Every structure is written in C-alpha cells, then in structure tokens.
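Now for one record.
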Amino acid sequence: MRSTCIISALVAVAAAAPAPSPQFIDLVAIDAAPDPVLVSAPFDVTSDSPFTERSVSTLTKRDGNCAVQPAGSGPVPSPDTVEAFQADPGLQAQATNAPTPDGYSSVFTNADGSLSASRYMGLHTLTSFDTLGCASLCDQADGCEAFNTYIERDPSVDPNANDCPDPPSTTNYKCTLWGAPISAEEANNKGQYRDSFHVVITGSNGYNKASPPDSIDGFTGPQELGGAINAPLDNGKNTYMGYKYYPFSQTQGYSPSTCAAACTAQTAYNSRHPAADGTYATCSFFNAYVLSQNGVPQGLYCSLYSKSWAPSYATNYGQYRGSDRYTVSRSYSYTLA
C-alpha cells in the first residue's frame, strides 16, 4: 500500500460498480489506498488517554529534570543493566505463564517489543503482570479489540543529559488497549533512549478479542463467518452491491457499525437515483471483516448485498497479489431487521 502523510478521519474506497459474482477482494484499489496509521504508546508516562493523530505527529523530544518517577511494581534485576533485564528468566516466566483471558486469543507471547499498531486506546500501569486485569480494562472500553501486556525497564528519575543521564532503573508492568486487531509483526516497538538511559521491553504478550462484536440497531446479528461472503447469482440476479474499505487509523478501528452506516447510506443513495421503473436496490445485508496483508491488519472491509446469505457462502479466505498474501479475519454478517 502506498504511504501517506495525512489520513482523514474516514477514508473510504468504494467500488465504482457492483462486480459480478464471485466477489473478489479489490486488491488493486486496496493497494492504492492509504496505509493504516500505526501508533506506539509513550514511554514516559504511567497512564495515557488515546492519542489523536495530530498529537501523535507533534510529539517532540525533551530533556528531563531528574525528578523522581513513580516506582514500578516489578523486580529490578542485578546487575541493573539492559542485558540482565532482557535475559531475566523470572520476568520472562511471568509472560509465558500468564493465562489467556476468556473471550480472547493469544497472538504472541514473551516478545521483546510492545505494539506499534492501529487505533491506540490508552495505557495503564499495573501492579503485576495481569493479563486478566488488562482484559477487564479492554472489556470496559467501548470499541476495544485487543490488548498488550508487557514489562518495561524505565528510569527511576527523569533523565537529564547533564545531571542524571543514566539513572538506576525501575520495572513497570504496562497494559495498552487497541481498537483494531493486532499481529505479532506489530510487536516491534523495542524501546528508546532517554538521554543515556535505555528503555527496553521484555515479556510482551498480545491478545485479540475472540468474542463477537456488538449488535447493531436495525440489524440482526452478528453472525460469525469462516471467511468473506462469496455469493452466487440469485436466479440470474447479482445481489452484490459493492464494498467500502476503511484503512485503520486513530479514528477508525474494527467497527461493524461503520459498515451498517455504509449499507444504510447506499440504500438512501439508491432511493434518490432509482431505475427507470422507479425501483431501487435496498442494502439488506452486509459482511464486515478485517483485511490483513502478510499478517498485519490493514483495515475494515464492508461488502454490501441486497439479499442475505448463509454462512456456507463465506468461502473467500483471502487472496494473493504477487508475493503479498491478503487474509480475512473477524468476519461477521448482519441482516436488515
């Protein structure tokens, strides 16, 4: 996908006209769409509210003032070095032995990086490596689709280049929340230097929500699907009405309600532009899913139909474009009530 400097709040790529069955993913248009916006949680705070894209882009480096920082709840290895921290078996065991919460699936375990992913929803500092507690925070956050728990080596005082460039460390347990599914490939935020102090990460675990998305007013569902809908002609009639694609960003996560709005808007548009006999197609069914490229979630894909289709027609599991593999996940359908 091409790179871009500015992402609008909602970027939609729409099919110019309904394609004949089968409904292949429009990879030419997807490849031309903006890349997903990836965000990393900050290192110098104990809690954080979701960033806006503007605030992310305007972050600037600053020097500290040697102020004492909140003490972390984790043990500090001896010797107090980056190498000892990253090799500490006790810290890593906390990650490998952590339970996977009900309603979630494990994406990666004991990585050495935190997430750089889409739809960042905030950071919490915990008192232990608590995957169940982090899952609870995700469950309480509207739109949360994933979370990352990890152990971070932080400075005990705010480093200053002249007076305290490399202070003793403290060990923090961090929990970050995300509004789009995550992947192991996105656990690539390996830390940073704060003056001479090296912030690093160990024991990083990531989890995606496995429970169904929310119901939507005016529609029945969600109905879980094994892939994307690939509907045949219905007595010679094509019921496929096109698609909308929304790249993930700080304002767009995995939200089937976005597809519902697109479905309703398509019906409204059709009613204003009827056929010569006055009839028009009503969007009565949509399929919402996550489209990933080489394992990394890219955006929300919404396929629209004038007729509902059973899960047995969800047979499109992905496609290749050259060496790039595009896959379908979190696929659900909704039917107009």
User: Anything to note?
Assistant: DSSP finds six helices and 16 strands in the chain. Residues 2-20, 52-60 have pLDDT under 50 and may be disordered. Residues 256-272 form the longest helix (17 residues).
